[in-house]
Structures are given as C-alpha cells and as structure tokens.
Write a structure and sequence with these properties.
Layout (H helix, E strand, L loop, with lengths): L8 E5 L2 E5 L1 H7 L1 H9 L13 E2 L2 E6 L3 H12 L7 H13 L3 H14 L7
Parallel strand pairs: 1-4
Antiparallel strand pairs: 1-2, 3-4
C-alpha cells in the first residue's frame, strides 16, 4: 500500500490510509485538481479544518481501500502488467475521479488483451 514519507496528502478509504503526493493526483485527475485547489469541506470529504495527519490534509473516500491500492499502483507503476481482475478497480476509480489518461491507458490495455473480434 503506497505510503510516501514525502507525501503531501493522505487518502483515507475504509480503515486504510495512503500518503501520496497532492500534486501528482492534481496533475492526473480533473476531480482532484478542482477539489484540492479549494481544500474546503464538501461532499468529497476534503476538509480544511484540523483533520491533518503528519501535517497533511486527510481526504476521506467512500471507496474500498483495496480499489485505491490498485488505483495508486496503476498510477505509479504504469508499465506493470494489469490483469483483468485487478484492472477493474482502477478502471472504476479512473471514471469516478476523472483520471482521463489512466482511463484511456487501461482501456487500451484491455482492448489489446481482449479484442472485440476473434480471428478464425
């Protein structure tokens, strides 16, 4: 599970926390770019009060911790093979949190692995 000592934000999903780089998520996700620029309370769970851990804001997410583990791994290790069962988690989250490049990359991998036509 990703935990970077030099991370600037903590994602909290279920009972698991991930310390990640705020700038990385903001660069890769329109959702996080918008939400993190504001850092104010709202439906996303982003807070601007005293909810900090190790000096980093904590973002509470309604998603499964396992899904975020796979998602962050897919963002960090872009060249690692992505089995179908594991690809589903980052695929769902990429749609929800607007990780457009990652969504396209996963779709391309799946299309290559599972073509829509079968040659006989």
């Amino acid at each position: 599970m990703p935990w970077f000592d030099d991370g600037t934000m903590i994602l909290h999903a279920q009972s698991t926390r991930f310390k990640v780089c705020l700038e990385l998520l903001a660069q890769k996700s329109a959702f996080f770019a918008d939400k993190l620029a504001l850092l104010e309370p709202g439906p996303s769970g982003i807070t601007n009060d005293n909810r900090f851990v190790q000096g980093c804001p904590v973002v509470h997410l309604p998603d499964k911790a396992e899904d975020w583990g796979y998602m962050l791994d897919a963002l960090i290790n872009r060249k690692t093979p992505l089995p179908f069962a594991i690809a589903c988690s980052p695929l769902r989250l990429a749609c929800v949190y607007e990780f457009v490049d990652l969504l396209e990359e996963i779709m391309e991998r799946l299309t290559h692995t599972f073509p829509s036509t079968i040659e006989v």
